[in-house]
Write a structure and sequence with these properties.
The protein is α/β, with parallel strands linked by helices. The chain has two helices and three strands, in the order βαβαβ. The protein has one domain. The protein starts with 8 loop residues before the first strand and ends in an 18-residue tail after the last strand.
Length: 87
């Protein structure tokens, strides 16, 4: 994501790493132009990251801008995530 880019909707979707659950389904449903998605997966293993990347790729094909992150969102620390966002 480039600095200063504006979106109609910015959405954090947790549980998107399963690839077939409600988080992934929600991400696919709301993906579109003008939508920025932060996709989160609970799992930190390679398989979970691969599933999360696949969901992100599908959402990007539908026009969304996506970033992904792993299991530790509640640490209070700055997190740099795939896609260029900083939390």
């Amino acid at each position: 994501m480039s600095t200063g880019e504006r979106f109609e909707r910015v959405v954090l979707v947790t549980g998107a790493g399963a690839g077939s659950g409600i988080g992934a389904a929600l991400a696919r449903r709301i993906a579109g132009h003008g939508v920025a998605l932060m996709l989160h997966a609970r799992g930190a293993d390679e398989a979970a990251r691969a599933r999360l990347a696949a969901v992100a790729a599908e959402c990007e094909q539908r026009g969304a801008t996506c970033a992904t992150t792993g299991p530790r969102l509640n640490t209070g620390q700055v997190i740099h995530v795939d896609g260029g966002l900083t939390l």
